[in-house]
Amino acid sequence: MSKYQQFIDIVSNASITIPAMDLTIVIATLTLCLVFKFSKTGLIVAYLFCYKLGWSVMLQHGDSYVAGYMSFGILVGVTAVIAMFKPDK
Predict the structure, then answer these.
(1) What average pLDDT is seen over the chain?
(2) Residues 60-89, buried b or exposed e (16+ Cβ, 10 A)?
(3) Rounded to a whole number, what is the distance in angstroms from the first to the last CA of the chain?
(4) Residue-level pLDDT at 89
(5) How far apart are CA 45 and CA 31, in angstroms?
(6) Greatest alpha-carbon span in the chain
(7) Of 3, 12, 46, 50, whose CB is crowded by the most CB atoms within 10 A?
């Protein structure tokens, strides 16, 4: 089986348990971001929450998946922070 097919199999068959307190905090934070029009901050919060949940899946597999997930996550995170510094039009 190729690495790509193995990755697709992992993602499609993964089960994730979400703690109720984490979900409550994220929903409350995103609601506040929407109410006070901090849309960029809300996007970063949602990204970090999803990134954190992805670690619970990737840590169960090999080092190559963890390294790829970490490098891609850092790349997207840095790009998002750089984009936050651009002024809105």
Answers:
(1) 86
(2) eeeeebeeebeeebeeeeeeeeeeeeeeee
(3) 48
(4) 67
(5) 11
(6) 49
(7) 46
* Six token digits for residue 48: 């970090």
pLDDT in tens, 22-59: 999 999 999 999 999 998 889 889 999 988 888 877 77
pLDDT digits (tens, 9 = 90+) for 14-25: 777 788 999 999
To which residue do tokens 């002024």 refer?
87
> Which of 43, 46, 58 minimizes the C-alpha distance to 22?
46
Please check whether residue 23 is in contact with residue 31, taking contact to mean a CB–CB distance below 8 angstroms: no
